[in-house]
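Predict structure. Chain length: 236.
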Amino acid sequence: MQIYWTKINKIVEETPEVKTYLLDCPEDFTWEEGAHTHFAFEGFNAGEKPNRSLIRHMSISTLPHENSIGITTRIKEECSEFKSILRNLDVGHEVAIFKTHSNIPLKRENKNVYLLSSGVGLATFRPLLLDYFDRADNVSHIHSLNIDSSKDYLFTTLFEPAPDKKFTSQFVDNRHDYYEEVKNLSADKDGLFYVVGSDEFLTENINVLLEQGIKPEQIKLDKHQKQLDKFLTIEV
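Prediction complete.
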């Protein structure tokens, strides 16, 4: 396993609780849209076993042409040890990234794509949308639906509806409106539904989609195959 040690080059405050940490790109480090990585702090591998409290599985919210590895995350006032350490890091601090992989690249199958996310989960979809805007080949249309009860919506400039680019977007702040819209979107029985959020959020969305007649293979999750099988065999 190759561990890349790199430095924070910029910290962007997206909302009062959400920050993007932009990291220098190591020379031979590459990734694609929808990628996640393991993000760790100094000392995580100092002992015989990795210190898991110093490691988190994070989505990369940028594309390689942006020349920075973006990690976008919510840090609340009361937070975990990991987030507490992260909050105190500054530009120039060194961090580690390793085990980078994409489970949800943008599928180009001449279908409509629906991006369903909760809160900061939208960061996972930012690279997919950028990739689509750069090259719309074999994607019929993209619609983004995000729920965030804080109402401090992320990336609103990028996720602005653009009918000329066949992109529509919606932000909601409550579960009722969100799931009603998911039901409306699932009228497209041929669409591809990408879902990003907590495990509970994934389970709720999968149940709604399956109840509406969407097939498991149409649902895309940021999970390894073994985890994927477990989620997509939920009994409706």
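Summary: The chain has a mean pLDDT of 94.
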